[in-house]
């Protein structure tokens, strides 16, 4: 299987995606890995994650020490630090780059910081592999729909990250650089659903930007499915996009409020927001093909794309305005993922826990 006896490095591995990715990799569904390295700069999150995996099986001291002897290994480091990146990458077969500054307001106020993590961090991974000939077979860049036709700093830096990794295929032909791009993850700490839950529990009002605003919605497991699909079948330079539906913010608010007598307040579009997100642009649709349940955006660079016999899967952009769930469908989606008020859910550092 794909990960049998492989060493997987996850940068930003203590984030929402990283936690679910680690859990599923360790389940063995993609094979039994030799090592899973969680690389991040937050020691508190690493400590909590380490204990959550090990504390129930061994003593506290055993969980904290003997770190490098375990299949799940934690390393403190920052993708901005080239030396730290080299130290982590040199023993990896597969790298998933989930390290990012991803809060839109933070990136708007500190664009240089966003550039250092989202762009220079990517460049450090490429440089480490290229300059040192590390035997990395695949690098997966984790991106966002905000990188498509970006209007905010987070999206702009993520778009550059995509291009840094795609172009890396030319001068690092022994390593396959690919990417995934997806929209809002249901119930991650930065998303609207936990905010609505909190506002509802406090008696309202529930604040929305614009009623007709739409957002793609997918679960963390679906995001991990996208990473796994790309690892299995993506060609160098391709970006995998899940084919998912979207919902309006007004339907999300109405669904979560239900029959409660809670008001909805419209506050307007915030800086750096779009009315509708785009997963595949008009320009990208010209080289976008279908791969099972996913779209694959092929590189525009001829040295990477090569000749293709696959037909384009789209005739225009793939926008959250195109396949919008109605109110009953929105309710059904939230119920399917146990996200209605009253369900036993807990949010912890961006992860939905049960």
Structural commentary:
With 354 residues, the protein is α/β, with parallel strands linked by helices. The chain has one domain (7-353): NAD(P)-binding Rossmann-like Domain (Rossmann fold, 3-Layer(aba) Sandwich), CATH 3.40.50.720. The chain contains 13 helices and 18 strands. It has helices at residues 16-26, 43-54, 60-64, 82-89, 104-109, 111-132, 153-171, 192-201, 220-233, 249-257, 282-285, 302-305, 327-336, and strands spanning 7-11, 35-40, 72-76, 94-97, 138-144, 176-182, 184-185, 206-208, 214-218, 239-242, 246-248, 264-266, 278-280, 288-291, 294-297, 318-319, 346-348, 351-353. It has a nine-stranded mixed beta sheet with strand order 3-2-1-4-5-6-10-15-14, with helices on both faces. A three-stranded mixed beta sheet has the order 7-9-11. The chain has a two-stranded parallel ribbon with strand order 8-12. A hairpin with a 2-residue loop joins strand 17 and strand 18 (351-353). Helix 4 crosses helix 6 and helix 8 (192-201) packs parallel to helix 10 (249-257). The two termini are 29 Å apart. The model is unreliable at 347-354 (pLDDT under 50).
């Amino acid at each position: 299987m794909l990960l049998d006896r492989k060493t997987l490095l996850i940068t930003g591995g203590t984030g929402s995606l990283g936690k679910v990715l680690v859990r599923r990799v360790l389940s063995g569904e993609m094979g039994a890995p030799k090592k899973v390295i969680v690389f991040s700069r937050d020691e508190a999150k690493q400590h909590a994650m380490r204990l959550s995996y090990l504390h129930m099986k061994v003593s506290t001291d055993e969980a904290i020490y003997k770190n490098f002897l375990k299949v799940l290994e934690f390393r403190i480091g920052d993708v901005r630090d080239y030396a730290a990146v080299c130290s982590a990458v040199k023993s990896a077969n597969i790298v998933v780059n989930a390290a990012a500054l991803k809060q839109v307001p933070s990136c708007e106020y500190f664009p240089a910081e966003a550039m250092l993590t989202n762009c220079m961090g990517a460049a450090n991974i490429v440089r480490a592999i290229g300059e040192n000939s590390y035997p990395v077979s695949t690098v997966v860049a984790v991106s966002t729909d905000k990188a498509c036709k970006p209007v905010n700093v987070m999206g702009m830096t993520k778009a550059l990250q995509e291009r840094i990794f795609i172009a890396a295929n030319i001068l690092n032909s022994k390593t396959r650089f690919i990417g995934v791009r997806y929209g809002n993850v249901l119930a991650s700490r930065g998303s609207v659903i936990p905010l609505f839950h909190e506002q509802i529990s406090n008696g309202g009002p529930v604040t929305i930007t614009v009623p007709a605003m739409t957002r793609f919605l997918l679960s963390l497991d679906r995001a991990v499915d996208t990473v796994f699909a790309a690892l299995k079948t993506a060609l160098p330079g391709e970006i995998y996009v899940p084919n998912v539906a979207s919902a309006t913010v007004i339907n999300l608010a109405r669904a979560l409020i239900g029959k409660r007598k809670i008001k909805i307040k419209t506050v307007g579009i915030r800086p750096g927001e779009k009315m509708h997100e785009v997963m595949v642009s008009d320009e990208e649709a010209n080289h976008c093909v279908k791969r099972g349940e996913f779209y694959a955006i092929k590189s525009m660079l001829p040295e990477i794309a090569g000749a293709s016999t696959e037909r384009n899967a789209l005739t225009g952009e793939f926008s959250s305005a195109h396949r919008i769930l109605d109110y009953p469908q929105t309710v059904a989606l939230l119920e399917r993922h146990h996200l209605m008020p009253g369900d036993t859910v807990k949010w912890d550092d961006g992860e939905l826990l049960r």
